[in-house]
Amino acid sequence: MVLSRQQGEIIKAGPEDVPELFRLWSGMIKDNTTVAKIREMVEDARGRRDRVLLLKKNGNIEGFIAYNEKKGNGHIAGIASKRLGYGSHILEAAENELKESGFTRVILEVEPSNLPAIRFYIKSGYALFGEEQDFYGKGKKAFLFEKRI
After folding, report:
1. Which residue of 37, 117, 140, 142 could cross-link 135, Cys pair, CB 3.0 to 4.6 Å?
2. What are the structural domains, with CATH classification, of the chain?
3. For 104, left (φ over 0), alpha (ψ -120 to 50), or beta?
4. 78-101 pLDDT, tens digit each
């Protein structure tokens, strides 16, 4: 995806990005992801499974997306951005890479109380297709969304 100079650039995360990526992840996504898990995702990005893309501007991470394969589908594991509009750019970049890898469907989970994320995914073409009980812990379900790509 081509962005203007003002918007930054989308690149694959490297080991040097792990500390800043962890700070962003833990500040924007309320889950139990550890710095070790983020390091594993970034290192595995050179392998076959996890992928992490960053939106960088002036050397700073402005947004990120982590994605992989889950149950034969492309899967968005986490996404966050510091500014409005950046999320759609990195989501589109991940969807394009998943499509190039042969996936035709992308799935993701959203906490039901996260209304801004739900609106963002619906605006991005995702549709609710189910729920998963205890996804975020005992008694904390997730809404499941999908998009054909």
Report:
1. 142
2. 9-148 (3.40.630.30)
3. alpha
4. 898 887 788 999 999 999 999 999
